[in-house]
Q: What sequence folds into this?
């Protein structure tokens, strides 16, 4: 039997490519950035499997162009770039990489929380622009985390790790999630908020940890921002479209809320003329929450393991649509 053909849409960690070596006839897109759509459609054409990134759109068009594909292994926990029902209908298994990035993403969320609360980026710019003339009793006053309330929207794996870290910082943690987590409440003292509005009203900081789905698109819009306190800060390390970014800009400009820290945006890369970039009370980073050397390596390895297992008909370490197998003829 010849090895299956696979297309890897980016140069990933050598440890992951070594796993594929000898087991798959592998083409790796050598660019730093995503292959253009036409290239993706063409290269995927003869393949049995794809190892994709969150910037590659995997939809009916791509699946039609690559009729032999049996596995799409996405190197991310989120898979909103993949139209999973289309894959399932065609018997294509979809892999993702949960677990291996949880702690790294939680740490980065804390970094943004601290940066926004204590105005770290503003302080850096103040010094670099020569504005620091001497010590002042109130120079760039921030807000303490200890004693403040953090509202977590979505207490999945990452939300939970953020909440645990927030407790270590002396914060009170409220959470709103699809399912109540009594064990997390009794172990860590988190408080369940049955509705989002009441969490938003009570929180000094709000951190988003839900997946992007049709139900969570613009979950935070004008009304939700208006429910928040004027000193509140919004943190988003989940997916950009969960927040209505225009509404966020208006809310920040009108001082409806005090600040925001965003690792993800509605449009990525964020255009440099985005009005949010004109506001000093916004911290932005380029979708790097999971971007530590160890974690991106682990994600790549897990994506390679998912791909190989799926192609061999073995259980994948993480498959979001195992029921797809039934659709295979
Ligand atoms: C994910 O895995 O979904 C992250 O956004 C990528 O870091």
A:
């Amino acid at each position: 039997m010849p090895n299956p053909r696979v297309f890897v849409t980016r140069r990933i960690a050598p440890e992951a490519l070594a796993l594929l070596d000898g087991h798959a006839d592998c083409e790796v897109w050598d660019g730093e950035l995503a292959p253009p759509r036409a290239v993706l459609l063409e290269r995927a054409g003869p393949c049995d499997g794809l190892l994709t990134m969150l910037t590659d759109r995997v939809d009916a068009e791509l699946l039609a162009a690559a009729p032999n594909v049996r596995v799409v292994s996405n190197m991310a926990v989120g898979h909103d770039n993949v139209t999973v029902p289309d894959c399932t209908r065609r018997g294509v298994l979809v892999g993702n990489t949960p677990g291996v990035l949880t702690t790294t993403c939680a740490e980065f969320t804390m970094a943004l929380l601290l940066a926004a609360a204590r105005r770290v980026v503003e302080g850096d710019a103040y010094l670099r622009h020569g504005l620091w003339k001497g010590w002042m009793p109130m120079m760039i006053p921030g807000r303490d985390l200890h004693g403040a309330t953090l509202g977590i929207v979505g207490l999945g794996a990452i939300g939970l790790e953020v909440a645990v870290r927030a407790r270590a910082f002396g914060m009170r943690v409220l959470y709103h999630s699809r399912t109540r987590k009594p064990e997390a409440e009794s172990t860590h003292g988190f408080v369940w908020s049955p509705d989002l509005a009441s969490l938003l009203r009570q929180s000094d900081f709000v951190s988003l940890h839900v997946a992007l789905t049709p139900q969570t698109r613009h979950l935070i819009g004008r009304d939700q921002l208006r429910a928040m306190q004027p000193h509140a800060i919004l943190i988003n390390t989940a997916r950009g479209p969960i927040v209505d970014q225009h509404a966020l800009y208006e809310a920040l400009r009108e001082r409806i809320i005090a600040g925001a820290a965003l690792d993800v945006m509605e449009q990525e890369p964020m255009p440099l003329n985005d009005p949010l970039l004109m506001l000093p009370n916004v911290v932005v980073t380029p979708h790097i929450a999971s971007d530590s050397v160890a974690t991106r390596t682990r994600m790549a390895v897990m994506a390679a393991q998912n791909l190989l297992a799926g192609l061999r008909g073995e259980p994948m370490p993480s498959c979001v649509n195992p029921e797809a197998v039934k659709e295979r003829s």
